[in-house]
Amino acid sequence: MAKTIRERRRVWLWLCGLIAAPLLIIFVNAVAVDSETRPAAPRDGGKLIDTGLVKANVKVQGTGPPILLIHGFAAAIDWWDAIAAVLAADHRLIMIDLIGHGGTGAPLSDYSIERQAAIAGKVLDNLGVDRVAVIGHSMGGDVATALTQHRPDRIDHLILIDSPPLP
Fold first, then answer.
1. How far is residue 24's CA from residue 132's CA, in Å, rounded to a whole number?
2. 2 partner at 20 to 30 Å CA-CA among 20, 42, 49, 143?
3. What is the greatest pairwise CA distance in the chain?
4. Chain segment 77-101, per-residue pLDDT in tens
């Protein structure tokens, strides 16, 4: 009987170790990633615009009525490359890298949707854009919606691509 209890204890400890090891690795990775910061740097044909909140990588091309393109999570302004040339034929495209994406800086904290929307609004201010159509993909749709809620007077159209509904 004592041998059975020892065997059970050994198996239980082994299973606990098997579960604890990946959790520890995930925790260490999360701490390491969260502690990383990255300064802004222009990329993908963009230029840095100081919004007062963060330096944002922004690419502007074309002329005509403005369209603000906001990419989704884990993307960048180059996500729009497949359609940019067509849209830029008769529109002024404004593509922005969200915080921590592409060439926009990756600060230590505050990646909130509201802050992303405020940065998008500051980019529009900096470029002298009063009214704009906004297209947001996935998480970019959340940012576009927040921008619309914060500055409804400057949004002509709101187009959401694969964005989840908000309550």
1. 47
2. 20
3. 84
4. 999 999 999 999 999 999 999 999 9
Q: Which residue has the tokens 């969200």?
A: 98
Give dist(CA 141, CA 83) in Å, integer.
Answer: 17
Residues facing residue 96 across a β-bridge: 58, 70
Q: CA torsion, points 122, 128, 133, 137, in degrees to nearest 10?
A: -40
Q: pTM for this structure?
A: 0.79
First to last CA, the chain: 58
- Give residue-wise pLDDT tens across range 105-124: 988 888 999 999 999 999 99
Assign 13 to helix, strand or coil: helix
Angle 132-135-140 from CA coordinates, rounded to 5°: 120
Q: In one letter, which amino acid is 3?
A: K
Nearest to 135 by CA among 125, 127, 126, 147: 147
SS3 of residue 105 by DSSP: coil
User: Which tokens belong to 162?
Assistant: 């694969």
